[in-house]
Amino acid sequence: MKRNHFIVKKEGEVKEIVADDIDSIICCSSGVAFSASALALAVQNNIQVVFTRYSGWPYAILMPASITCSVRARREQFTAYSDERGFILAKRFFLGSSAKN
Fold first, then answer.
1. What b/e sequence results for 27-57 when a residue is b if at least 16 CB atoms lie within 10 Å of its CB, and e otherwise?
2. CB 59, CB 51: distance < 8 Å
3. Phi, psi (5° rounding) for residue 50?
4. Which end of the chain is least crowded, N or C, by CB within 10 Å?
């Protein structure tokens, strides 16, 4: 890890990504490794790390304690994906956008 950069290695290819350009890190694959310094960089830059199943459903979230929004609200947003609230919201968003057109 370079200063304020994440180093991402995949199949022999190496990329450097500036932490300021990242809102969240989503890990949806097994066998992925994060260094403690990479996780510390994420926390220092208020970047959440989301671990998802292969299907895309989140099972764990690492969030910096300093994030100003309510942790409970964010937790509810993620759990809404897996119950009827997610469908209800999507339906309302769709109906609202189609009513304007």
1. eeeeeeeeeeebeebbbebebbbbebeeeee
2. yes
3. -110, 130
4. C
Tell me the CATH number at 36: 3.100.10.20
Rounded-to-integer distance, Cα 15 and Cα 8, Å: 5
Q: In which band, very low, low, confident or very high, does the pLDDT at 101 lie, cut at 50, 70 and 90?
A: low
Do 47 and 19 meet the contact criterion of CB atoms below 8 Å apart?
yes
Instruction: Please give the Cα distance from 46 to 22 (Å, whole number).
Output: 9
Average pLDDT for 39-68: 84
pTM of the model: 0.60
Q: Which stretches within 53-101 are classed as H helix?
A: 71-80, 84-100
How far apart CA 92 and CA 88 sit, in angstroms, is: 6
Range of the domain at 74: 69-101
Shared domain for 76 and 53, answered yes or no, is: no
